[in-house]
Amino acid sequence: MSQAWQAIPPARALILSLLSSGGTGPTALAALTRMGGLFGVDAATIRVAVGRLARDGLLEQVERGQYALGARGAAMGARVRGWRQAEARMKGWDGGWLLILVDHLGRADRVRLRARERALRLSGFAQSDAGFWARPDNLAAPLPQLIAEAVDLGLDAAAIAFASAAPLPDEEAKLRTLWSADNLATTYRFWVDAMDTSAARVARMPPDEAARETLLLGQAVIRAINLDPLLPDALVDAGLRRWMIDGMIAYDDIGRRAWAAFGTVEVRSDQG
């Protein structure tokens, strides 16, 4: 992890982050180019990226020079913004497992294989030595909804799923080792420390630097929350995970204040 969060994302991802963070209301192209400049992305690159995002349905032009998240972009943004309710997606774990079988789908189509495995990992599944994918059955949504969400992410509709599975003791012991509780705890602590350090630093920064840092770090932490497998207390230190999420809620407030201050500077500059 180190300081990789400081890397500037591609223009398309940056634009979607800026619009998702600010809500779904229209934003002027001129404002997007100014914000892009804050991250070292020139105006021409922003304009080209906006045009391509609009063609892909991720943005829509609501009026001349004004853009908002399109249907696809709004759906993605809603999923990203769901980080605050991440743990609300969980239920108590009774020891059962969700299992998904995909071996019958083949591995010859490498593009399809990558999309399938990415969807499963984004859904918190890990691949067992036996070849099937598994996760604790501790998510509140019913199995059909969970599978539909995974299909939206790229899982094949022909995958075979089982809920509340009870593997034999030896196999269950192996399933419990598919995730490293120590690595997850290290991740949670890393992001809490990064936010604490940044919060102290941002307080002394000029508005443009504070806005840039809070967006980059905030997006990285939100990504970590949304990619978390949401394991039950029996498999991970859930208190550390809650500490990270609570820390992000506080850091998000810092970021919103930083962007409000940056916007005020921008308005004064425009009016001057």
TrEMBL record:
Q: Which residues form a coiled coil?
A: none
Tell me the domain of life.
Answer: Bacteria
Any one Pfam family match given in the protein's UniProt record, by short name:
PaaX
Q: Which residues form the Transcriptional repressor PaaX-like N-terminal domain?
A: 11-72
Q: Which PANTHER family match?
A: PHENYLACETIC ACID REGULATOR-RELATED TRANSCRIPTIONAL REPRESSOR, TRANSCRIPTIONAL REPRESSOR PAAX
- What is the name attached to this protein's record? Transcriptional repressor PaaX-like N-terminal domain-containing protein
